[in-house]
């Protein structure tokens, strides 16, 4: 807490707002190596850029080998 000299009253220092997690992840099919990038999405398949992996429909399958979402792992780039 600080004193505001112009107002003569105490002011509470508010913490800066927490930054939203804007880092996008990359997921790779363990069967064929296909890469899904959250930042890019798959517009041709109806998945817009910026779509998080958790928001990709559960019935979506790999466009290369038809693997299910459970067959993808997050990878570090």
UniProtKB/TrEMBL annotation:
InterPro entries documented for this protein: Rubredoxin-like_dom, Rubredoxin_dom, Rubredoxin_ET
Cofactor: Fe(3+)
Keywords, comma-separated and alphabetical: Electron transport, Iron, Metal-binding, Transport
Annotated GO MF terms: electron transfer activity; iron ion binding
Domain of life: Bacteria
Stored Pfam families: Rubredoxin
CDD domains attached to this UniProt entry: rubredoxin
One biological process term in Gene Ontology: alkane catabolic process
Pathway, per record: Hydrocarbon metabolism; alkane degradation
Domain Rubredoxin-like per the UniProt entry, residue ranges: 24-75
Role played: Involved in the hydrocarbon hydroxylating system, which transfers electrons from NADH to rubredoxin reductase and then through rubredoxin to alkane 1 monooxygenase.
Family, per entry: Belongs to the rubredoxin family.
Protein name (Swiss-Prot/TrEMBL): Rubredoxin
């Amino acid at each position: 807490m600080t004193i505001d000299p112009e107002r003569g009253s105490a002011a509470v220092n508010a913490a800066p707002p927490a930054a939203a997690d804007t880092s996008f992840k990359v997921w790779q099919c363990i069967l064929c190596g296909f890469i899904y990038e959250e930042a890019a999405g798959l517009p041709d398949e109806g998945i817009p850029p910026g779509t998080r992996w958790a928001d990709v429909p559960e019935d979506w399958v790999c466009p290369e080998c038809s693997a299910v979402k459970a067959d993808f792992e997050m990878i570090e780039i």
